[in-house]
């Protein structure tokens, strides 16, 4: 196996469901000789879709890694290929792949064109500074117009999207426009496409541009460094055409991967952030260096639980060298571990390896302490390092769950938290007021997959019902609060006095607690107790029983007693002072607003618009990804959408689909606020 860092290629296949990413991975594995023959999604024989649910549903549910070797001419490469789900509901499995690669390959279904997730993945990859490659797949399908699609790609993503090859012989093969430009194409000119590519690349290097203008041509060797720079800067986004089904363009794609795509030393380096001890929260940014001689840094981007061997942590090495018997630390943990074994992955197949260098993607098994998004490192001084956080969508779609079998409550809780450790977009909540266990995900399909997994893998059957809507509370104005807690019993008493003020924060800022006490009027050891009392109110709410957010609490004065002051006294005083301030701060109820993306037949636009309008929704825009279909972008309150899936199904005769994504919180209408407060009042009076 090639062991030079320069020979490593890391690529994530991302894009809309149905674009053929898994079949494309099979075709590349077969072309490289890594498998005897390409597997089939329909027969459940692919390397990457190995989970029972994936075989049954015939689409990807989780991120899969396929590592293999390839050789093109005299150049060999070790390729780490990441296959990802394409449905919006499974973005929590797809997006972590972007933290592990140099190149995001956005796969487009030539029949369907630019779809919702195509645009999103282009944006996600650009934000993370990744090289981007567009793969137009399924060019063999009937009624495909590749020339029109290339024009639409350039309109949507820029003129820097230039073809490295073009369909030829009525889409049965492709003609190279870069390495050996010659021959005919179904549209455009191979020579003209080659000229545009060269001119786009040499623009990033003035000296090479002068050479090109003088000679009229440059060699592939002269183009290599400026090409990598153009990819890093987004000055060039190559487009290739393939059919994973017929094999058209697969050999050419493998050549592009081996000869043109970035190795770990050529891509934009990953950004780490550090919060050193004693820095008062100051965050420093630094970049990992792909050097095997430096401290080891590896990022865990996938957790999987195997029923036989337990937890499997999949990680990307960014710096240093990892070996099976070296001492490693997990995040800020102080207790070191020894992996014992390192594995390269090809779907569910694990092959033991003796080292992992920068660029490698490997796995460690049977170490339960490792969590998603943690850093593995070999130096205690790196304990405060983290990879720049992933921008994952907020999970708002919820189901309240109860076990069908009495006595399974603890087992259900254990299994849910085990699955949540694998899925960064699955949240488990317990509503103490309604005594509901709620799982929140990215959509109906996401949570159905979780329920199916619990039934098949863990033999747990659950009853479900819609959960309470996650309303929140906040304040409208600044206010001050005061409380003196004084209690005298037969022995020692209790005393604590707190003065504080509250201020509203911008939406989405959460909660801030500020200690502004001067002169020690409240001793430092009692400040955490004051905060604990404040946080108790934060969780239980004030006007309607929902958690408070977007509030700053500033404790600025108080009194103490040399004998009677205790933690419990200041906790009680802090809670009551906060309640006192809230009563004057115009508290309000906030409701969650979600983005709703709908794909439906064009003729149903009026009915869908009417349905949204009737539930306080509004349409922000629409697009037509292909004739006869309309993609609608809208916003609506989550509380109004309980029946929306069934209504959409009825309106479109089952041909419509939708996706929800949390947007923001905003003040609920007055009538809804009054209703929620009235419902809470009897319960509060009995407590």
Describe the structure.
The protein has 687 residues and is of the alpha+beta class. Strands 2-3-1-4-5-9-6 form a seven-stranded mixed sheet, sandwiched between helices. It has a five-stranded antiparallel sheet with strand order 14-18-12-13-17, with helices on one face. Strands 24, 29, 30, 31 and 32 form a five-stranded antiparallel sheet that branches. A hairpin with a 4-residue loop joins strand 21 (427-431) and strand 22. Helix 6 (190-202) crosses helix 8 (220-232) and helix 12 (527-540) packs across helix 13. 44% of the residues are buried. It contains 16 helices and 32 strands. The mean pLDDT is 91.
Q: What integer is the average pLDDT?
A: 91
Cα-to-Cα separation, first versus last residue: 68 Å
Tell me which oligomeric state these chains represent: single chain
Low-confidence stretches: none
Give me the number of helical elements: 16
- Order of strands, main sheet, comes to 2-3-1-4-5-9-6
User: What would you report as the Rg, rounded to the nearest angstrom?
Assistant: 29 Å
Briefly note the structural class of the backbone. alpha+beta
Number of DSSP-assigned strands: 32
Largest sheet: 7 strands, mixed
Shape: globular
Helix content: 25-40%
Q: Hey, roughly how much beta strand do the residues contain?
A: 25-35%
How is the topology of this model organized?
Elements (H helix, E strand, L loop, with lengths): L7 E7 L6 H11 L20 H6 L6 E9 L2 E9 L7 H4 L8 E7 L6 H12 L3 E7 L8 H12 L3 E3 L1 E4 L4 E4 L13 H13 L3 H10 L4 H13 L4 E5 L8 H10 L11 E4 L9 E4 L9 E10 L3 E10 L9 E2 L11 E5 L2 E5 L7 E5 L9 E3 L7 E3 L9 E7 L5 H14 L4 E5 L4 E6 L2 H14 L4 E4 L6 E3 L4 E9 L6 E11 L6 E5 L11 H14 L10 E9 L7 H16 L5 E14 L3 H10 L3 E6 L5 E9 L6 H9 L4 E11 L2 H17 L1
Helix pairs in contact: 1-9, 6-8, 12-13
């Amino acid at each position: 196996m090639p062991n030079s860092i320069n020979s490593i290629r890391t690529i994530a296949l991302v894009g809309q469901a149905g674009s053929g990413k898994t079949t494309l991975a099979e075709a590349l594995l077969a072309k490289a000789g890594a498998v005897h023959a390409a597997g089939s999604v329909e027969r459940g024989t692919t390397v990457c879709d190995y989970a029972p649910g994936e075989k049954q549903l015939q689409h990807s549910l989780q991120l899969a890694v396929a590592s293999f070797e390839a050789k093109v001419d005299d150049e060999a490469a070790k390729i780490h290929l990441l296959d990802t789900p394409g449905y919006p509901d499974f973005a929590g499995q797809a997006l972590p792949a972007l933290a592990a690669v140099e190149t995001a390959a956005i796969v487009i279904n030539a029949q369907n064109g630019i779809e919702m997730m195509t645009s999103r993945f282009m944006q996600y990859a650009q934000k993370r500074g990744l090289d981007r490659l567009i793969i137009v797949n399924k060019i063999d399908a009937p009624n495909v117009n590749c020339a029109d699609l290339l024009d639409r790609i350039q309109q949507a993503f820029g003129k820097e999207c230039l073809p490295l090859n073009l369909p030829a012989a009525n889409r049965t093969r492709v003609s190279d426009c870069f390495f050996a430009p010659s021959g005919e194409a179904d549209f455009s000119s191979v020579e003209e496409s080659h000229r545009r590519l060269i001119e786009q690349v040499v623009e990033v290097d003035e000296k090479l541009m002068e050479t090109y203008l003088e000679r009229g041509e440059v060699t592939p060797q002269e183009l290599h460094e400026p090409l990598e720079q153009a990819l890093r800067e987004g000055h060039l986004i190559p487009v290739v055409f393939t059919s994973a089904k017929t094999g058209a363009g697969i050999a050419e794609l493998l050549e592009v991967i081996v000869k043109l795509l970035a190795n770990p030393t050529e891509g934009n380096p990953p950004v780490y952030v550090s919060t050193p001890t004693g820095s008062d929260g100051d965050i420093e940014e630094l970049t990992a260096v792909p050097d095997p001689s430096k401290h080891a840094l590896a990022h865990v981007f996938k957790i999987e639980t195997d029923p036989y061997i337990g937890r499997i942590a999949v990680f990307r090495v960014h710096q240093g060298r990892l070996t099976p018997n070296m001492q490693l630390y997990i995040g800020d943990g102080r207790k070191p571990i020894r992996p014992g074994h390192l594995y390269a992955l090809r779907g569910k197949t694990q092959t033991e390896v003796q080292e992992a260098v920068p660029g490698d993607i490997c796995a460690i098994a049977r170490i339960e302490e490792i969590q998603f998004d943690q850093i593995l490192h070999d130096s205690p001084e790196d304990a405060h390092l983290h990879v720049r956080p992933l921008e994952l969508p907020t999970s708002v779609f919820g189901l309240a769950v109860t076990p069908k079998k009495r006595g399974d409550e603890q087992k259900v809780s254990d299994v849910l938290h085990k699955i949540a450790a694998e899925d960064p977009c699955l949240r488990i909540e317990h509503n103490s007021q309604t005594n509901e266990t709620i799982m929140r995900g990215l959509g109906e399909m996401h949570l159905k997959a979780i329920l199916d997994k619990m039934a098949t893998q863990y033999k747990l059957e659950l009853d479900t019902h819609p959960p309470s809507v996650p309303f929140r509370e906040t304040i409208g104005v600044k206010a001050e609060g005061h409380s003196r807690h004084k209690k005298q019993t037969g022995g020692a008493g209790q005393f604590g006095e707190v003065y504080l003020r509250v201020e509203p924060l911008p939406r989405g800022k959460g909660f801030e607690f500020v200690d502004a006490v001067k002169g020690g009027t409240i001793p430092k050891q009692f400040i955490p107790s004051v905060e604990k009392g404040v946080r108790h109110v934060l969780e239980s709410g004030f006007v309607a029983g929902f958690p408070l957010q977007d509030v700053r609490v500033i404790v600025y004065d108080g009194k103490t007693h040399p004998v009677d002051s205790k933690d419990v006294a200041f906790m009680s005083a802090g809670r009551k002072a906060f309640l006192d301030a809230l009563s004057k701060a115009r508290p309000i109820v906030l409701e969650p607003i979600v983005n709703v993306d709908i794909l439906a037949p064009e003729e149903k636009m009026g009915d869908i618009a009417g349905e949204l309008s009737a539930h306080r929704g509004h349409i922000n825009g629409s697009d037509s990804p292909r004739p006869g279909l309309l993609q609608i972008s809208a916003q609506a309150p989550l509380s109004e959408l309980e029946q929306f899936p069934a209504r959409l199904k009825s309106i479109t005769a089952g041909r419509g689909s939708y996706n929800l994504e949390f947007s923001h919180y905003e003040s609920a209408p007055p009538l809804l606020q009054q209703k929620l407060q009235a419902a809470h009042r009897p319960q509060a009076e009995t407590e």
